[in-house]
Amino acid sequence: MASRSDDDPRIGDISEGAVLRAILARTAPAVHAVLGPGDDAAVIAAPSGSIVASADTLVEGPDFRIAWSSGYDLGWKSAAVNLSDIAAMGAVPTALLVSLAVPADIRLSFIEAMADGFRECCAQLAPGCSVVGGDLTVSERLMIAVTALGDLGGRSAVTRAGARDGDVVALAGELGMAAAGLGLLFARFRDGAAAVPVDRSTLDPVQQGALDRQLRPVPPLALGPIAADAGATAMMDVSDGLALDASRLADASGVTIALSGAALDELAFGGDRGRALGGGEDHGLLATFPAGAVPAGFERIGTVTARADAPVLVDGRPVAEAGWDPYRDWDHAR
Amino acid sequence: MASRSDDDPRIGDISEGAVLRAILARTAPAVHAVLGPGDDAAVIAAPSGSIVASADTLVEGPDFRIAWSSGYDLGWKSAAVNLSDIAAMGAVPTALLVSLAVPADIRLSFIEAMADGFRECCAQLAPGCSVVGGDLTVSERLMIAVTALGDLGGRSAVTRAGARDGDVVALAGELGMAAAGLGLLFARFRDGAAAVPVDRSTLDPVQQGALDRQLRPVPPLALGPIAADAGATAMMDVSDGLALDASRLADASGVTIALSGAALDELAFGGDRGRALGGGEDHGLLATFPAGAVPAGFERIGTVTARADAPVLVDGRPVAEAGWDPYRDWDHAR
Fold first, then answer.
1. Rounded CA gap, A261 and A266, in Å?
2. Helix/strand/coil percent split, chain A, to 5
3. Which CATH class is domain B2-151?
4. Which terminus has fewer CB within 10 Å in chain A: N or C?
């Protein structure tokens, strides 16, 4: 296909400079950045005098399949999961740095679509945040290593360690929806062990919605700073499953998180409590507040108690803390 | 070797949490960080109200060989090359975020040594800077994706774009030494195409010094802010070779960099002008200053002129801009 090769070259056949120019042409102008991509480093305004920074990497295999995710999906998801960590501190995302390791046979259009996904995710979930730097290398497997930066705007960072006996436990965002979408991928779009492209026409609208959340999560980023302003005593994003992440917050704070089974059943996607507790990747915000301080957008799901034997209880009974990691369970060494 | 396996497990045989705890135990306490590793994000002081941020990735194969580099070397070099981009803006490095993708069969001691290398490089070249976050994934090839952050301390960032006709061109740091060390590796420590461990006893002291600079570069980081304070009009770090990097600065500034052959010969490691122009990875600082403003630590190597036909001249003649990339030339697709 000579014509496709001309119009849409493989990454290995063009210069790094050409790839970077194509990416930059699709990157939104920097709002918080005083100086964007192209120099030795970007310069980013930090008017409040302190910033938050977090890094998270998506790797082909353990974290995604190219057969299931478009370039746009991967750009979106890589942005969203990193922006979520910034919001979970109570900060507003300002900038992303993206280090791509790309197989030489990937088409330029795939990388361009990834740049579109980064841009649109920022535009929709964290307006003003944009990609301000990064780098590009060649590797056998696609890897997307992102660092996200944010500004606290004068707020104190909300850590995992401040929950107190008597606080309300609340959640913003979905519970089990991304895991339901991942379950569909594993159940319906494989040929033996191999991932095959998704045929959306075989899914009903609810299933399509779950699939979309798995491929392009929509974490409630704007509620992070709102929770901080409302007095959240502890907060984190739920990436590895509510049971496991709640146990981390409980351990960091030295308390027990006592969840209500009825509240979980109400919020759980499809009413599936097990998936609500074990399913990850929703990137909702789990937070604790003084009684009466829970802001709109958060749903009450339990209370903080003095430390009991177990870090997390549901209706008074301990729950397993196993997180959700079917990619890794499926074919990965770890 | 059951005993070694017990004492020094492979990364694939222990939990991510155990690896991270081992790394954190070797990470220096954060000086600039209000909140270090362990939460959703780190919090870093930015007292001057703006920060600089840069990302660079080292990949096994294109960038290093495990046969040639110890874990300590790799941690050191990954820190140094990223810190250098911060210094090249005139900023003081404050924090690193490190995303590691690690083959499952690598020993924990290798990763611990890498953490030591990160810590000691920061301690020696950028005191107060430390690793404040990152993540860990498993992959076939070792990849080290680093984001470096720095504080401008009220200075304006020194970009590549400010050089003016009549400025002095000056360099701090080495010229061709890292390339000489890499040349030794390729010439002396291979079995066919495969890298084999270095036997330092076969090298004379000068060769050992060059090898050390290739494996553990010592960029003149402290001179970055000093150059900014002295009035540097443009600055960048020399990572891909003086000729190529000077052409980038010339293009960004719309000027020509006219270098003195005699000055290059004096600074060039081993007096090798070709390697001085083409050899990369020294991470010296290339800067332009108003006449009379060159600070101690920088050597004058040329002048800035109005834009001529070529971006870079040596004794009035154009030079090729090819950068130094023998790893890639040797066995890589690009």
1. 9
2. 35, 25, 35
3. alpha beta
4. N
Per CATH, the homologous superfamily of domain A168-324 is PurM-like C-terminal domain (3.90.650.10)
Chain B: closest CA distance from residue A33 (Å): 9
With a CB cutoff of 8 Å and minimum separation 6, the contacts of A318 are A309, A310, A312
The reply to whether residue A39 touches residue B132, judged by beta carbons under 8 angstroms, is no
Concatenate the DSSP letters of all residues of B16-66 into one string. HHHHHHHHHHTSPPPSSEEE-TTSSSEEEE-TTSEEEEEEEEEEBTTTB-T
CA atoms within 13 A on the CB side of A268: 19
The pLDDT of residue B5 is 57
Q: In terms of residues, how long is chain B?
A: 334
Q: For chain B, which residues make up each domain, given as ranges?
A: 2-151, 168-331
Closest CB from B50, B53, B145 relative to A99: B145
* A187 contacts A90 by C-beta, under 8 angstroms: no
Identify from A135, A146, A147 which residue to disrupt to test chain B contact, counting B C-beta atoms within 10 A and taking the largest count. A147
Q: Own/partner pairs for A18-23, CB < 8 Å, 24+ apart?
A: A19/A108, A19/A111, A19/A136, A20/A136, A22/A108, A22/A111, A22/A112, A22/A115, A23/A111, A23/A112, A23/A115, A23/A136
pLDDT of residue A139: 87
**B contacts of A150 (beta carbons < 8 Å):** 41
Smallest Cα distance from A210 to chain B, Å: 25
pLDDT tens-digit readout, A221-269: 999 999 999 999 999 999 999 999 999 999 999 999 999 999 999 999 9
Chain A and chain B share a number of CB contacts under 8 A equal to: 209
Average pLDDT over residues A287-295: 97
- Put simply, the answer to whether B140 touches A141 (Cβ < 8 Å) is yes
Q: Are A184 and A210 in contact (CB under 8 A)?
A: yes
Q: Residue A41: which of B54, B132, B143 has the nearest Cβ? A: B54
Q: Which chain A residues have a beta carbon less than 8 Å from that of B98? A: 55
Question: What are the chain A neighbours of B42 within 8 Å (beta carbons)?
Answer: 52-54
Which of B85, B137, B333 has its CB closest to that of A57? B137
Q: What is the largest CA-CA distance in chain B?
A: 68
- Nearest CA to B235 among B311, B300, B160? B160
Q: Say if residues B111 and B100 touch (Cβ distance below 8 Å).
A: yes
Contact B56, B85 (CB under 8 A): yes
Choose which CATH entry (3.90.650.10, 3.40.50.1220, 3.40.50.970, 3.30.460.10) describes domain B168-331: 3.90.650.10
Q: Is the predicted pLDDT of residue B35 greater than 90, yes or no?
A: no
Nearest CA in chain B to A14: B334
Would you call B147 and A55 a contact, using CB atoms and an 8 Å cutoff?
yes
Structure tokens at B171: 């360099």
CB contact under 8 A, B55 and A97: yes
Angle between helices B177-188 and B205-215 (to 10 degrees): 100
Contact in structure between B259 and B304 (CB atoms under 8 Å): no
> Which residues lie closer than 8 Å to A187 by C-beta, 6 or more apart?
none
Nearest CA-CA distance, residue A147 and chain B, Å:
7
- Ranges assigned E (strand) in A78-167: 92-102, 130-138, 143-151
